[in-house]
Amino acid sequence: MTQSTSTRTGTRWEMTGVGEPLVAVEFPLPEPARGEALVRVVGCGVCHTDIGFLFDGVRTAAALPLALGHEISGEVVAAGAGFEHLVGKAVIVPAVTPCGTCESCRAGHGSICSRQCMPGNHVPGGFATHVFVPARGLCVVDEPGALAGAELAGSGCTLADLAVVADAVSTPYQALRRARVGQGDFVIVVGLGGVGGFAAQIARALGATVVGFDVAPGRLAALTEHGLAQGFDPSGADPRALRDAVRAYAKESGAPSTYWKIFECSGAAAGQELAWSMLGPGAYLSIVGYTRDKVSLRLSNLMAFDAKAVGNWGCLPELYPEALALVLEGRIALAPFVERHPLDDVWNVLNQVREHRLERRPVLAP
Q: How many Å apart are CA 106 and CA 37, to the nearest integer?
């Protein structure tokens, strides 16, 4: 155990109300409780979930004021009993950590654990210099130079950049694993932002032929260099025409005409409707993005096509090492799709994300 942290303080930027500027607050750093770890934040990604909390009125599980941020990488500087071996380790903090002991967890369904812990939702999050998080499930980044800010393995990434593994990479990784994406599959990704862009890369790394939809030409072009076989801009197009275009591409490329695997990552009603329109015989539809908007669907399509529609919430901590390995092995490119900003510029960055003025996923670094 490191020396006592009880006399030290950290700083976090707290949300106090919907649409209100964040407030910098100092807080004490006592020794972690049993099962808890104190992590010095090296990087914290900004997710559209944070925008939903801050600007759209989505309620956090914990009462305000609360520091947001759930994509965290850093260094364990202290740990409670049973986890002392983690002190001094570079880690990625899971965006959601199940309790590990409840009935759902014991049955292998940790994603619906009622006692799960999400930084920036259930407890203060990573828009801070330090966070207290569950020690269970921390993903160790065992690479030379990680804590010194070095580029890691063949990834071109630093530990700060790896913060986005905590959600933007791991969440689509779990969704694709559940869909059993593999060699020869035909995958459609709707929305190629942070989560969707990595979904496309992961699908290609797993051996699939990948087509994607996005209204931003820059995203389509960037991902064409990183595994996207064909990109489509759906702006103003008829869904039937888009489906015909995808079907034609599948035929031309020798991809299967059935059992398409579709991942809705846009988190927009229009994206969900587009993804639904891609259903065909034996299709598998995974809803990965989130929106509060409602859509009108004919559910009988599931029956008619003998298709499946499922949801995906986060990623179980036990899958994080596999997702991290894809980055460190260079099988998916992370560095070209993230950019670092100083943590004290958090309010400006959040507004830029809200206004869609950033092409890359921002990482805040204290």
A: 23
From the options 3.90.180.10, 3.30.1120.10, 3.30.420.280, 3.40.47.10, give the CATH code of 9-167+315-365: 3.90.180.10
pLDDT in tens, 271-301: 999 999 999 999 999 999 999 899 999 999 9
Residue-wise pLDDT for 92-134, tens only, equals 999 999 999 999 999 999 999 999 999 999 999 999 999 999 9
Determine if the peptide bond prior to 65 is cis (ω within 30°).
Answer: yes
pTM above 0.85, yes or no: yes
Question: Quick one: CATH architecture of 170-311?
Answer: 3-Layer(aba) Sandwich (3.40)
Is the pLDDT at 6 greater than 60, yes or no? no
**Pairing mode of beta strands 90-93, 139-140:** antiparallel
Question: Cα–Cα distance between 310 and 269 in angstroms, integer?
Answer: 16
* Per-residue confidence (pLDDT) for residue 39, from 0 to 100: 98
Q: What are phi and psi of 231, to 5 degrees?
A: -115, 145
The amino acid occupying position 138 is L
Q: Domain spans of the chain?
A: 9-167+315-365, 170-311
Angle at 67 between CA 61 and CA 71, to 5 degrees: 85
Judge whether residue 364 has pLDDT over 90.
Answer: yes
